[in-house]
Design brief:
The N and C termini lie far apart (75 Å). The radius of gyration is 24 Å and the shape is elongated. It has helices spanning 2-20, 33-46, 48-51, 67-70, 74-83, 97-111, 123-131, 156-159, 162-170, 237-240, 243-254; strands spanning 141-142, 145-146, 181-187, 192-200, 204-208, 214-218, 222-227. Helices cover 38% and strands 13% of the residues. The chain has 3 domains: 21-112, Cytochrome c-like domain (Cytochrome Bc1 Complex, Chain D, domain 2), CATH 1.10.760; 123-174 and 235-254, Orthogonal Bundle (Cytochrome Bc1 Complex, Chain D, domain 2), CATH 1.10.760; 181-227, SH3 type barrels, CATH 2.30.30.100. The strands form 2 sheets. The protein has a 5-stranded antiparallel β-sheet, with no helix packed on it. A two-stranded antiparallel sheet has the order 1-2. By secondary structure, it is of the alpha+beta class. The chain is built from 11 helices and 7 strands. Bound molecules: heme C (HEC) (2 copies). The site of one heme C has 23 residues, from helix 2, helix 3, helix 5 and helix 6. Residues 43, 46-47, 49-51, 59-61, 63, 68, 72, 77, 80-81, 85, 88-91, 93, 103, 107 line the site of one heme C (HEC).
C-alpha cells in the first residue's frame, strides 16, 4: 500500500518535472521534413477533431494563421501539448518528448512561409499546370508573364504559408485581396465593362479589364455598378484538379520568390522583378 502511494507520488513528481523541464528548450527537430510528416500523422489522429485537419480551427483555435503560433516559443508549445491548457477544452497529451516535438514541428510548418517549408508535390509539373491546362496564367503574372485580374504571384512563396496557398485554391472567398474585387459597370451609353475595381470613390471608379486596360469612369456617366459577391478566382479547382495536381501546383507556388538565395552572396541577386 505504502509502496503504491510512493509510486504515485514519484510519478506525479516526474510528470511535474517533465512539464517544467522545457524552460527555454528549442525544438530539436525544427524544420525536418520527416518530423513534419510524422507530426502530421499524429495531428490527424489526435488533434484534427478540434483544430481541423489542416489546423484551420474548429472547437480549438486556428493553428495555421501564424499569429498564435509564430509568437510562441517552442517550450510554450511543448508544454501546451503535454499539459493541456487548464480551464479550457485543450486536453493534456502524455506522450514521449519526441512525438510532442514532431507535433510542434508540424504546427510550425503550417504558418511558415512556403518557401522555407517542404511540400510533397513536383514544382516543375505544377509550373506546367500553371502556365498550361489550369489556366492560372490568364489571371496571374509570374515574373512578368501572365494576366492582371489576379494578384502577381512572383513572390507568393515568401509571403504565404502552404496552408494559406491551399486555402486560396480551395476557398477563394475566405480572404479577399485588396484591389481585386470583381465588378461590372453599365455605362449610360450602353457599354458593359467588367474587371477588377482598382479605385472606387463617390465620384469615380477605375476598372482594370482582363486585357489590362484601365478604364477611369465618372459615376455620373454610369447606369449601374455591380460588385461581385464572390472572388473572380474560379471556385471549382477542388473538382478540376486531382490530389497530385493540387500538390504539384502548391509546390510550384511555394518556390516563387523574387529573392534567390545564393550561398556566399548575402544580399542575393534580385529577380527580374
Ligand atoms: C477536445 C478538443 C481539443 C483537442 C483534441 C486538441 N486541442 Fe489543442 N486546443 C483546444 C482549445 C479549446 C485550445 C484553446 C485553449 C485556450 O483557451 O487557450 C487549444 C489550444 C491549443 C494550442 C495553443 C496553446 C497556447 O497556449 O497557445 C496548441 C499549440 C494546441 N492546442 C495543440 C494541440 C495538439 C497538438 C493537439 C493534439 C495532440 C490538440 N491541440 C488537441 C482544443 C483541443
Ligand atoms: C479568372 C481569374 C483567375 C484565375 C483563372 C485564377 N485566379 Fe487566382 N486569383 C484571382 C483573383 C481575382 C484573386 C484575388 C482573390 C480575391 O481577393 O478575390 C486570386 C487569388 C489567388 C491567390 C491568393 C493570392 C494572395 O495574395 O494570397 C493564389 C495563390 C491564386 N489565386 C492562385 C491561383 C492558381 C494556382 C490558379 C490556377 C490553378 C489561379 N489562381 C487561377 C483570379 C484568378
Amino acid at each position: 500500500m505504502r509502496l503504491h502511494l510512493l509510486c504515485v507520488i514519484a510519478m506525479a513528481c516526474l510528470a511535474a518535472w517533465a512539464a517544467d523541464d522545457k524552460g527555454d528548450a528549442k525544438n530539436p527537430l525544427a524544420g525536418q521534413p520527416e518530423a513534419i510528416a510524422a507530426g502530421k500523422k499524429l495531428f490527424v489522429e489526435g488533434c484534427s477533431g478540434c483544430h481541423g485537419p489542416n489546423g484551420e480551427g474548429g472547437r480549438g483555435p486556428n493553428l495555421a494563421k501564424g499569429d498564435l503560433i509564430r509568437g510562441a516559443t517552442d517550450a510554450h508549445l511543448f508544454s501546451a501539448i503535454r499539459n493541456g491548457v487548464p480551464g479550457s477544452d485543450m486536453p493534456p497529451f502524455r506522450m514521449p518528448d519526441e512525438k510532442i516535438w514532431q507535433l510542434v514541428t508540424f504546427i510550425r510548418s503550417l504558418s511558415a512561409p512556403a518557401y522555407e517549408s517542404t511540400a510533397p508535390g513536383n514544382p516543375e509539373a505544377g509550373g506546367a499546370l500553371f502556365f498550361g491546362q489550369s489556366g492560372c496564367v490568364q489571371c496571374h503574372t509570374i515574373r512578368g508573364r501572365g494576366g492582371v485580374l489576379g494578384p502577381d504571384l512572383s513572390n507568393i512563396g515568401r509571403t504565404r504559408s502552404y496552408a494559406q496557398l491551399r486555402e486560396a485554391l480551395l476557398d477563394p472567398d475566405a480572404h479577399p485581396t485588396e484591389g481585386f474585387r470583381g465588378v461590372s459597370v453599365l455605362t449610360k451609353d450602353g457599354r458593359t465593362i467588367s474587371g477588377v475595381a482598382k479605385d472606387n470613390t463617390n465620384y469615380s471608379i477605375a476598372v482594370l479589364d482582363a486585357q489590362g486596360n484601365l478604364h477611369l469612369l465618372w459615376k455620373k456617366d454610369l447606369r449601374e455598378v455591380t460588385f461581385h459577391q464572390k472572388s473572380l478566382m474560379p471556385h471549382d479547382y477542388k473538382q478540376r484538379l486531382s490530389r497530385d495536381q493540387m500538390q504539384d501546383l502548391l509546390a510550384f507556388l511555394g518556390r516563387q520568390s523574387v529573392r534567390v538565395d545564393v550561398p556566399g552572396d548575402e544580399a542575393g541577386p534580385k529577380g527580374d522583378h
